[in-house]
Records
---
Amino acid sequence: MKTTTQHNEKIAKLTFSSVYPHYITKVESKGRTIEELHLVIEWLTGFDVKKLQELIDEKVTFETFFKQAKINPNAHLITGVICGYRIEEIENLLTKQVRYLDKLVDELAKDRKMEKILRQ
């Protein structure tokens, strides 16, 4: 499935703080912890817990969130399908980065080993 301009714009305008509680719910309902979620987010973005909380408090959009991130050089190893989209085929960089995060959260919720999630 190919993303549309409207889809990409919608993702860019979403606030991270509106999606973050859903990440927590997803991982905790599967027996994983918020600390593990934070580890995954930090691996991808470079944001520690303090910076993450600042971004949540500021209600930044995903566009701003990923502009400030230092994307892990191994992020390109995140592949597969998430939300009906094959990550490797997504052309819009921001949409791809958001889907990287979605995929990592999904893998955490599916009880994948942390070494595999963090591509070690």
---
Amino acid sequence: MAVQPITGMLRRGLITDLSIALGLGFAFGNAFWYGYHVPRTNARDNYYKKIEEQRATRQGI
């Protein structure tokens, strides 16, 4: 036989591609979530908390 069969290469490549894609997706998802979303959410919550405290102080509550 002049050409070797290519059995297993497609499966190995698919597993590698999926592993890399899922790993990078998870890494970048965490980077977005904890690097951008959580700090922005905390900043927003702190802003509204400060506004609410100012309102309560003005009303004497």
